[in-house]
Amino acid sequence: MTPKAKNIVAWVIAILAGGFMILQGINKFIPSEAFDQMWTDIWGYPLWFKYVIGILEVAGGLGLFLLKFRVLAALGLIGLMLGAGVTHIRADQAEMLAMPMIPILLSAIIVFLRKEELPFNPVINKDTSIEKEIV
Fold first, then answer.
1. What is the pLDDT of residue 135?
2. Residue 92 main-chain phi, psi, to 5 deg
3. Alpha-carbon distances, residue 41 vs 31, 49, 97 (angstroms)
4. Is residue 132 classed as helix, strand or coil in its secondary structure?
């Protein structure tokens, strides 16, 4: 894939995932008795935790729009959505796993496309080898 195509794909995915996460985060601030009951009675979380998650989702979504923070935001969203997946599994809500899996997949693609921007770069330089260092 050419660098230009890679950049276009990364932007399209960032817009989709970022928009999705921002909407999901804002949704946490819309009053809903049924949603509040799900947070407390079914999932067992305190109600204030819903607002913390909402802030993190909005921040992660916005971070996907900022080149400097895109990879870190994607990694953060992967962690956050893995937590959401665990919550659904614990609550025996396997049918709801698609909701966190979509942003996990999109964020993972962003990390893959932008892996050279990771603060810890796992890309191995093929020119470097132990034999070269020894010789």
1. 47
2. 60, 45
3. 16, 13, 19
4. helix
For residues 111 and 120, is the Cβ–Cβ distance under 8 A? no
Note the pLDDT tens digit of each residue in 26-53: 999 999 999 999 999 999 999 999 999 9
Q: What is the largest CA-CA distance in the chain?
A: 70
Q: Compute CA 43 distance to the chain's CA centroid, rounded to the nearest angstrom.
A: 21
pLDDT confidence tier of residue 131, bands split at 50, 70 and 90: very low
CB 107 within 8 A of CB 78: yes
Tokens 């008795």, residue located:
33
The pLDDT tens digits for 64-123 are 999 999 999 999 999 999 999 999 999 999 999 999 999 999 999 999 998 888 877 655
End-to-end CA distance of the chain: 35
Other CB atoms within 10 Å distance of the CB of residue 33 = 7
Q: List for the chain the helix, strand, coil content (%; round to 5).
A: 75, 0, 25
